[in-house]
Fold:
Amino acid sequence: MGVSSGSLLGGDGFLTTKISAVANWGRKHSLWPMAFGTACCAIEMMGTFSSRFDIARFGAETVRFSPRQADLMIVSGTITYKMASVCRRIYEQMPEPKWVIAMGSCTCGGGPFDSYAVVQGIDEFLPVDVYVGGCPPRPEALIDAVMKIQKKIDNEGPPIV
Amino acid sequence: MTSPPAPVDQIREKIGAYTLSESEFRGETTFTVKAESIVECCSLLKNTLGFTYLADVTVVDYLTVKFPRYEVVYLLHRFGENYEENLKIRLKAALEQDNPAIDSVTSVWSGANWLEREAYDMFGITFRGHPDPRRILMPDDYDEFPLRKDFDVRDRESSKRCFERALDEGLE
Ligand code: SF4
Structure:
């Protein structure tokens, strides 16, 4: 994007850009998270949303508990196979374009639960964009993940489906 | 003048006909009772001895360590006038390896409903006369009993199958 207000071009100021660049700029600053919290990591995610860490500073202002209104799914917590089908269905219900953050060791690879009930990483059934390690990760790490998504949107635009 | 009998003595006297043995550990008394008379024993404990609260029903799988293989454990609580008068006892009933089954105590404490469902879900113990004998935690079509000692705790095959099916059903 280029902004000019030079007298050379008339003095009123104008902007040259591509539609996709404007759209991506809008997308990246209005990521609405769908909070899919199932265990302890969710508490850390709530901390990230609230005033001390305040993820709203990065445009992820409104947490939506309806998948229809969200475009960023933050999966935070242990996902069991019984929950996995629910998680997948909620993902399917989100409108395109959409992104996924796997927050915490559990979602990245099962965490401490190497057991019959727990999915060993949500990438078994979801396309994950950013993995955040930690048990649980600090709010700064989640903010970093959101900013990585923003960079990704800048560079690549919406995922191709 | 003789002092009144200690509460455990009183219980021992009442349910003596149903017990096989008794043990004490750190002030808690455990009665091993005959599996076939569990309902009579429990209703006596509830109706005449005041054990109104069934705190938990769980199972121990001894596999090869002990025979018979399973023990169903009932944790009972009696509320006293004062905190010191609260009393906890434990009942155990041994069950065989093949088709382990015991009568349900839901007729005595309706709170046993979910506790027995969990015991069935995890150990495959059948509770005869249970009003709703379904699994409670694992999916309905799951076909293992995961807390049995001969089940490999890392075996995710059955879970995966239930997941795939749930997904297919959901997307139809
Ligand atoms: S990664 Fe750790 S903190 Fe997060 S849900 Fe799993 S066990 Fe809980």
In short: Chain B is about 25% helix and 25% strand. Strands of chain B lie at 19-25, 28-33, 53-61, 70-78, 87-95, 101-103, 126-128.
